[in-house]
Design a protein that fits this description.
InterPro entries: QCT (IPR007788). 23% of the residues lie in helices and 28% in strands. The protein is an alpha+beta fold. The chain has a domain of 81 residues: Beta Barrel (Thrombin, subunit H).
């Protein structure tokens, strides 16, 4: 019988002795070990390298688009028109019937003018106040709209005779 008892004892799991001071503490649960600083650093380094490579690819493709050289063989000048070399052009638009409308700048020299395209002759001229610097010009219906530089003044002109229809102000951004 003693031999049988020893075989049974071999198959049994060993009993753990209870420590009375540890009896009240909960048994520790298995938790994943936190990632080490080296692992986090390695992941950040890989992400940084991937980001830099992506940025370089995007920027090199964009740069190549700007580097396309214009071949002068593909450009042909079809006509040249005379123009007042003293005019500091700020706005220019073609209104049909060989007519240009031009806004010129510079203090004491700003104007809106109607110009014959073929001759460059100024057909009509509306001078701005000497304190204004003429800027952009656009055509809307039968009205020319001009704005000034660094002031908040704008003017609306009649297309036929360049008379001022009204003035307006705008906000500079």
């Amino acid at each position: 019988m003693a031999a049988t008892r020893s075989i049974k004892n071999k198959h049994r799991e060993p009993r753990q002795k209870k420590n009375p001071s540890m009896a009240t503490l909960p048994t520790p649960s298995r938790r994943r070990k936190p990632r080490t600083l080296a692992t986090v650093s390695a992941i950040l380094a890989v992400l940084l390298v991937i980001s830099v490579v992506c940025l370089l690819l995007v920027s090199s493709n964009t740069w190549r688009a700007f580097q396309q050289v214009v071949s002068y063989e593909t450009i042909s000048v079809v006509n040249e028109f005379p123009h007042d070399p003293q005019a500091f052009t700020q706005g220019l638009l073609y209104a049909g019937n060989d007519t240009l409308f031009e806004s010129t700048g510079l203090y004491k020299k700003s104007s809106v003018r109607k110009v014959a395209l073929r001759t460059g002759k100024v057909e009509k001229l509306q001078k701005l106040d000497d304190s204004l610097f003429g800027e952009g010009l656009t055509l809307l219906s039968n009205r020319l709209i001009q704005v000034t530089w660094m002031q908040t003044n704008g003017f609306i002109y009649d297309l036929k005779n360049l008379s001022k229809v009204c003035c307006f102000t705008y906000l500079l951004m």
